[in-house]
Amino acid sequence: MTSMYGDLDRPPLDAEALRRALVTPGALWSDIEVLDQTSSTNALLARRISDADARGASTDGMVVIAEHQTQGRGRLGRVWSAPPRSGLTMSVVVRPYDVAPNRWSWIPLLAGLAVAAAVRHEALVGATLKWPNDVMMQERKLAGLLVERIESASHAPAAIIGIGLNVSLRRDELPVPAATSLALEDAATTDRSLLARAVLRNLERLLTDWMRHGGDAEQGGLHAAYVQACMTIGRHVRVELPDGEVVEGTAVGIDGVGRLLVRSRGRQHAFSVGDVIHLR
To answer: What's phi and psi for 190, nearest 5 deg?
Structure first.
């Protein structure tokens, strides 16, 4: 990128350096693009998938990183925003050709694992996971994910994995009081290039292994790794469902397709969607 920037604490990403490090023979990632600004990296890739499918071209393994998102989206239609270059905002395209649709629910969970592991290893911040797809520092949100399935008339369906990691946000820049950033957690590094490489390498490793096992999370230890990293398990929780129903109980585990298991009033419930609140 050659654009000018004014905040010396927030240097721009070098797309060419990321490509040299990550787009290699046999790698999952086919291209990495860094944009100064876009409305939403997920929305941009959805359009590109549609255009490429119409031309018979491939978008598999495409990565787009935005220095600034003007209309970032989170789960349940929430708006996500941050100052330019203050976070790591990216989306990737994968096509799990040999994975049954009912196992795609593991994609946001393994993506959360990839981000949390990168944060722990590179930034030395003790990140954990809140089901289904928030990366947390204690009870403060450090990163969120949005996974969307894109159908195609001529190709296998694609998954777009959107990741938003708060890196250098200052306290007065946080979108909500319950959020945090690596800088606010005294991270060992806020180098976004280092973090991008770590996240994408972790994501490649976890996705490749998951797809090789046909989406079976028991194979390769994905299920066990998620359970170990998930702070929701063992907590008293309130699950708010899209239809307005609310269930309170104890989160007791994650089943084979990534659903949260909650025991409430002598019954066990399995949730594939829902807004989870950790209760004290």
So the answer is: -125, 25
Helix H or strand E segment including 277: strand 275-279
- List pLDDT tens digits, range 230-240: 999 999 999 99
b (16+ CB within 10 A) / e for 127-140? bbbbbbbbbbbeeb
Domain count of the fold of the chain: 2
Task: Tally Cβ neighbours within 10 Å of residue 119.
Answer: 26
Would you mind telling me the total number of residues written for the chain in this entry?
280
267/23 Cα distance (integer angstroms):
48
User: Do 243 and 137 reside in the same domain of the chain?
Assistant: no
Residue 2, domain member (yes or no) = no
* Spatial distance between the Cα atoms of 13 and 32, rounded to a whole number of angstroms: 11
Range of the domain at 77: 15-227
Euclidean distance between CA atoms 31 and 63, whole angstroms: 6
What are the structure tokens assigned to 65, written together? 């990183």
In whole angstroms, what is the distance from residue 239 CA to residue 234 CA?
A: 14
Which of the residues in the chain have pLDDT under 50? 1-4, 76
Q: Is the same domain home to 208 and 261?
A: no
CA-CA distance, 74 to 158, in Å (whole number)?
19
Rg (CA), the chain: 18
Instruction: Say if residue 220 is in the same domain as residue 272.
Output: no
Question: Which helix (H) or strand (E) is 239 found in, with range?
Answer: strand 236-240
Residue 82 corresponds to which amino acid? A
Q: With residue 162 as reference, give the H or E element that holds it.
A: strand 158-166
- pTM score, two decimals? 0.94
Q: Three-class SS of residue 190?
A: coil
Strand duo 31-35 + 72-73: pairing: unpaired
CA distance 114 to 92: 13
The order of strands in the sheet holding 236-240 is 267-271, 260-264, 246-254, 236-240, 275-279
